[in-house]
Structures are given as structure tokens and as C-alpha cells.
Specification:
amidase activity (chains A, B); 542 residues; alpha/beta; amidase (chains A, B); 11-stranded mixed sheet; AS_sf (chains A, B); homodimer; Amidase signature (AS) enzymes; 18 helices; globular; Amidase_dom (chains A, B)
Amino acid sequence: MSWEDLAAKRKAQVLDAIPQEWRLKELPSGDSVMSVPAESGLLSADELTITESSAAALVKSLAEGKLTAVAVTTAFLKRAALAQQTVNCLHSFLPEFALARAKYLDEYLAKNKRTVGPLHGLPISLKDQCRIKGFDTTMGYAGWIGQIDEEDSVLVSLLEKAGAVFYVKTSVPQSLMVCETVNNVFGRTSNPRNKNWSPGGSSGGEGALVGFRGSLIGIGTDIGGSIRVPSAFNSLYGIRPSHGRLPYAKMANSMEGQETIHSVCGPICHSIEDMRLFMKAVLQEQPWSYDSKVVPMPWRVGEEDVIKTKIASGSLTLGIYECDGNVLPHPPILRALKTVQEKLSAAGHSVSAWEPYKHPFAVDLANRVYAADGGTDIFAALSLSGEPAIPNIKDLVNPSLEKVGVNDVWAIQLEKWKYQMEYLSKIREFEERTGRELDAIIAPITPTAAIRHNQFRYYGYATAINVLDFTSVVVPVTFADKAVDVRPDGFTPLTKIDAAVNAEYDPEAYHGAPVAVQIIGRRFTEEKIMAIAEEVGRLLKL
Amino acid sequence: MSWEDLAAKRKAQVLDAIPQEWRLKELPSGDSVMSVPAESGLLSADELTITESSAAALVKSLAEGKLTAVAVTTAFLKRAALAQQTVNCLHSFLPEFALARAKYLDEYLAKNKRTVGPLHGLPISLKDQCRIKGFDTTMGYAGWIGQIDEEDSVLVSLLEKAGAVFYVKTSVPQSLMVCETVNNVFGRTSNPRNKNWSPGGSSGGEGALVGFRGSLIGIGTDIGGSIRVPSAFNSLYGIRPSHGRLPYAKMANSMEGQETIHSVCGPICHSIEDMRLFMKAVLQEQPWSYDSKVVPMPWRVGEEDVIKTKIASGSLTLGIYECDGNVLPHPPILRALKTVQEKLSAAGHSVSAWEPYKHPFAVDLANRVYAADGGTDIFAALSLSGEPAIPNIKDLVNPSLEKVGVNDVWAIQLEKWKYQMEYLSKIREFEERTGRELDAIIAPITPTAAIRHNQFRYYGYATAINVLDFTSVVVPVTFADKAVDVRPDGFTPLTKIDAAVNAEYDPEAYHGAPVAVQIIGRRFTEEKIMAIAEEVGRLLKL
């Protein structure tokens, strides 16, 4: 069978798995599909309520027996089915598997009068790098179709221990090395707010699904923005924890074994409350006993409390930058930064300029790592079926290029370490100069609001943070507004890519697109940065 | 100037720095030099008392003003001078620098009525990978002579903040990749207990100096036993913390930037009490604010307490193995393991057989990493002066060999990760089977007692633990005894190297040689493993 036929067959499986009664009679005509769940008539009022609830509220109701896992799972299956039909975000749709699990959980609770764990009955969506025993992981490669996984990824098995229900796997871009979501098997995923926009990537299937509320907590991964960009483009919260905080083991990946810049996993969700539920549930399962790369660091309430105290007294100390020296963000992003700064300042916190130290160097270093093997690893995956590379990664996949050698790898790693330490010294200098501890840095995560398809060009706001291995939490701030986000006069590009990114801005085309910022902290500051992100979110709603 | 002349001149600097009045009139004639300090007449009674004290007791007396930093520093300078004259362990002898620092500390205390920090006035010896601004680091390479360091290593600067005094740097084997101590600049370092034995390596200068009590706490590094072997061969305690616990930044190294198996730093000392003093002092300085590879993990008293409670109730759970499947240890080591097992069992603890999972695989993996660049990096350092490789590393340094490529590096790293996780699963299986949490594993650290020069062949007991990145603490147990450690009958070698190691055993030649074991815990279990090591040491003295 040709790879095209294999791909078409595999893609059809997803739709085939959706029961007829959950199918839309006709597809919506507008750019946005956000109103489909309410208007389709396919979800009951209760199901709409469930899917528009929070994960924290759901697990409470589930534990109290006010909701059944079957009811909750059914609601999310139905909403995910609508997401698939409207934005094409799924890799696998697993209603029977999910409902059997939900039934087991309901019976367990009825019999034992206690939950399996803190996520008892909560459906969690999985990016198609996560392996579930008995199902396939393709990462959008035609050549991987039908390779059935024989064991769960560590995170999957720990979430299961904590009581989660798995019901979908979500689509990714071929190779994962792109911040949009398109591959030769499942095609392109769109942004539920506007079909002309990307949901971001590489966890773009998750971004679209969670943005659509076909899931409340979705697992993403991030080596260069792949959790944070879909979070930003779908008006969601997302965390890129430091490497070693959450278990990545036994997930599929590109360039497996590459440890110079570690890909990390983390949740994409609607609130910090839900993010905290997830983080605490995973850490409670002691992931370090399963994944050797995880540091034995339980959830640290004391770290949260430090921030809460500062919030209460209006004494957070924050740095902020709006341009990394390579690419100036579009007007909606600059406005969002200004809004966040004003809200925080009005609450008494100190927000001062942060000089983004040698970010262009960091971005270049990251690119050298991503391209270190000339795409040999990705090329091998493509060669299994003979499918072509998607246009977005054509430049990356060129195995005829000279690859770096072992001494080059070591040299790059040494450069990375030195750069990371220089960054720490800049933080210490800031703290010595101001006499205040720097709690976080606020920055763009992309130079654009949710972007039009095939226009994602500049990854640097994300990748510099991956090089530093800093914790980063994305906070949704606002939406692009053609009335206020006008093109400024007198733009002089900093770089060639700056000119290209700037040229892409069109107030009309981006009107209504989600706009976010990232809040960055040093390594292993998840508790602190989440607490700050929560406060920023609260202030934005005042 | 030829490299031989440069080396001779540099070596002479060390002796030249020793004042005439601290020089031995004649060198001792016996094999052991352990009695030299007491018999030389060069140290006063007070100086003997000081150098035979503990670091913990000294910092207490220093803080209380009962001892001056000048007096303590002078005592250790003198004893280190004797060590240099008898076992040739130093790279740099720095009396003026040290005494100026000690004087400053005494004045500070007198003026401010408080110490600079918890190590106020304590001399700490530094392996010659540590950089001190204004002095050179040669790592025994003739080509590096005279390159003056422009900044301190991070650990050095944090120890200085904590109040330490630096007075010597100690010798290492050329390239560091050897568990003996010999190079073309400073020659060979001997074991103070017997000039025919090695002090181990690569932190062998430290091992010999601390063993001689020319230092109470010395800084070593360990990528394949280099802290633990010198600790074992000099009847000392030493810790190989997990990577990321202590700051390694800005130290010199071979194969800098190699991150597949991280070299780590740690103390070599006379007791766990002193080790704890050191660890707490360094962690108190928040090394993670300076070295990006350090995890923000303060000293965790709670982890210690868990072990203390188990000790009090005689309920530790320990695994033990005597052979790793590659090389059977010599009789003194097997006896030491049996002794430790008996002492622990008698105290009520559970000690059961641990199957050393695929250690030969781990050892092979480590060797592939160490040899990944065919010695290109080391060869470059040798080429600076034209000096030859020491015989011990000749096989390692062969840049004409094919080097591994970037995809090979990734493949090795993936193998490493999988192996580490398989090991964790073996621990979980043990725990599920026994219903008990595994607190530690007791094992040989070398197959031999302190070894005769040029006989160190098998690194595997150490390197398997480096591959796992497990915490390991060496505990001195006993001394080889020709009366009891007889050659067993009917030895059948497991491997070629097993035959060679076995052939080296000679009860007469090893009589009196220090014998140790290592106590191993999962990643980042320093507090726990140190508490267990302390208890083992206590039980051995009963």
C-alpha cells in the first residue's frame, strides 16, 4: 500500500471511531467554531456544564459521587468529537477504551468508598508522543502507522494511577520541530477561534482541543515552545517545567537521546488551579522512582507561600522585556506586556526593565542543536514510508549536510553551560543592584498573536528559555484588536527575520487572536512561577 | 624550554615554597610515613592536636576564639609540607596566600565578634581542577604550566564565602582518567601507609594528603571512582553526590562539555560529621544561584530523620553484592562486605542479596563514553608541549581512531536512560517483593585493597554507579590481613580482566592496605546515604 493510502486509512480511523450520533450534520460556515458545542445540540445541558467546568471542580464532584466518571468522560468524548470534526486535532479517538475505564472507576468508588487517586475520573488528553499500551503512536509519520505500543509512557502510567481517564491522543506536526500542526497523515489542525489561524505547535492538537474545551488538561511537550505556543495561541495556561521535574520517559520523540537541550513535558489547561491539581497529582506518584531523569522534588508548599506573602504585601520583584534583540513583537503583544506591567505596578509590585542577555546567541545555539544531525533522525522516519518532509522542516532535514562530531557536541554543551551561568550572574547583579530578589521575568512567548497558517517563523522567544532550562508559565492576557493594535510608524528591522515577522502583521487578519505572555523563573521554580502567573491572571480580570 | 625543563621547574616550585624550617632533614626509610608528623619534631604538640582533630571540632573552636585561623592554618601547612616531602601529593603549596587569608579571618572575628561563615578558618585542600584566581591549574599537563587562572571555580568561591582557607592544590594523574596519580610534571604520588601502594586517583593527591592528615577535608571529583577510590585506599570517607547537587562550574576538566556521564565533585574526609559540615556549608551558599547545573535543593534534615528513625528501630533495608559479574574482588574486600553485613544484621537491620543488574553493560557503556572522542581532547592538551601520554592512558589517547558522531552520542544517551530506568524497576521489584523500602545498597568500590602502583585495572565497581548517577558514600572498613585474607582455592575467572585482577593478589604485599565499601542510594539521596554510612562506621567500631 502506498504511504498516501496508508495515511488516508489511518486518518479515516479517527472519524470512524466517532459514533454517528456524535457527528455534525453540517460543518459550521464561519471562521470560529467556538460556539459549535452549545449550538450543535449534541451535548446535553449537563454535558455543556461539565465541559465548561474546571478540572478541580470536576474531581471534587467525582470524588463526592455527584458526577460519575462515565458521565464526565462521555461529555468530553462528545466535545472532543466535535473538535475533531471542526478543527481536525485528533490522532486517536478512543470511546470504548475510555468508557470502560470510567466504568471501572465508578465501580471502584462505589465499592471502596474512596477514589483511586486525586484525578479520579478526570479525562486527560495526550499529545501523540505519549504511549498507551495497545494503541499506536505515529507522530504524524506515515511510516510509524500501526506500530502498536507495548507499554505506557511513565507519565501515562502515573496519571492512570492517579485516576485519570484517557480518551484521545492529539495530532502533532511531522517531526515535532514546528510551532504549527501539520503532517502527511492527519493533515492540518486549525485554531478553534479562527480556521485561518494555527493552534500553534508542536502540541497544537492539544492546544486546539483544550481551547475548544474538548479537554481541560492536555499533556504537551516543549523543546522550543511546543507547550507554550499552543497555550498562547488558544488563550490557555501552559507550563514548561524545568527538565527533571516531570517524567518524560518512554514517550516517542524526534532525536531521541539528544540531551543538550532536553524536551520537557507539561500540562496545557484553563487555569493555574487546574495546573496545580495536575502537578501535585503527578509529583505525589513519585515520578523519580520510575524515570531516572526526574529529580526527587515533591511539591513544595513553602515555595508557594513565599510568593503568596509577597503578593499579599504587594512586593513582588519582576523584570520585563518586550524585545529580545532579534525580533520586535507585533503591537498586540507589546500592548499585552504593557497591560501586565500596569496591573502589577498598580498592585504595588516592582516591575522594571530586564535586559535579555545575549538572547540571539541562545537562539543560535538552540538552532545548532536542533540541526546537529542534519535531520538524519527525522529523515530516517520519513524514509520508512517515502513520504516527503512537510514544507516547514525541509531546511532542517538534509542528511547530506555535514553533521557535528562528538567534540562539537561537547563544545556546544560547554557554550550552553557558560551562557546559563552568565545569565545567572546577570540575575545576581540585578539583585545586588536593586537589593531585591528577582521573582520572575515577564516576556513575550511569540512575537505574534495566534498566527496565520504557514507564517510561524521566529521561535526565539521560546527557545532562549529552553536553552536556559528555566521554568516558564504562559498566561493568556488579551486578544488582538484592530482598533488599538495599529501598525506603528517608522519600523526599522533589527534582522532579516524581524522584517519578515513585521511584514506579516495585519490588524484585520489578526483581529481577535489570543495574545499571551510568559512568566519565567530560574530552574525548578514551578511552585513560585505558577503562583505569580495565577496572580497575574487574577489582576487581569479586575 | 623543553617540556622536561618546564616540568622540572614547575615541580621545583612546590618544594621551593616550603620554608627551610618545615623541611625534613632526611626522608623516612620505612614503607609507611604515617608516623612522620609525630616523629619529625617539626610540629608542636598543639599542631599535632589540631591536625588530629576533626573539622567539626576545629570550626567550633575557631568560632569560639579558642583557636586562631593562623594557628590552624600553620598546623596544616606544616603537615601538608611533610606530606609533600614524603608522598609527593601537592601541585601548589601556598603558605603566604593562606596565612594572609587566615590573618584576615582572625581580624574579622576580633572586630565583628562573628565568623565569616560556618567554615571560618578551616583549611580546605583543593584538587588541581579547582581554580583559584592568581594561581595556575595544570592537571599535570606540561603544556598548561603557567596559565594563571583569572577567576575562582564556583565551589572555591562559595567555600571562601563560608570562611575556608585555601593553602594547597593537590596532584592528579595526567588526563584524570586514571585511578592512580602520576603525571609528567609532578611525578607519582604514593600512599602514606605504604610507598609501594597507590593513593588511588584521580583525586589521589587529596587522598594521600587527607590520609596523612595534611588536610581534614579535601575536594575531589569523580567520573569513574576518582573520589571514592582515593577515599577507599586511604581509609577515608568520601562522597560521590548525584550530578547537580554540588557546583562543578569553572573547574578545569578533561573532555569539558561531555554531559553523557557527568563528573561530580565532593569531599574526601575523615568522618561523616565532617562531610555533613561541608555539605551543609556549601548548600547554605545556594550554589544553584551560580552554577546552572545545580538543582535548588537545600540540605534536607527530614531525609536524615527518616534514616535516624530506622536506625533507632533497627529497621534499615539494605541490599548487598560482592561481585558485579565482571571481576571478583580480592579476599580482603569480600571479608569487609561480610563484616559490614554481620554488623548491620546484628543491629537488627535487613541485609539481603542485591542482584547487580547488567553491571557489565553499564561498565561497557561508560568506557564507550570515556573513549568517545578517541582521546582527541586529551591529545590536544599533550600536544601543547609534546609530552607523551602516561602509560596508563596510552590506549585511551588515539585520535586516529574513528570518533563517534552526534547520532551515536544520542544513541548512547538513550541506552543510558533506558538502563537507568531498568535499574529503578529492579529496585521497585525488590520493594514490592519484600514489602520494604530499599534504603541503600552495599558494594565493593574497588576489587582490591589499596593497590600497588601501576596495577589498577578494573574501574567497573565505580563506573556502574556513575552511569546510574546514584549517590555513593565510601566507608573505610578494615585493613588487608595476610593471616586471614588467604587466596581461596579453585578460582575460575569470569573474564580476562578478572584473571588479571585475581593474579595481582598477594596477601604479603597487601598486608595492612586499607579496605572499604561503598554505600549506594538513588539519585539525590545524599542525606540518607550519609546517615547510613555514619551508622555503618559506628557499628564497625563497636
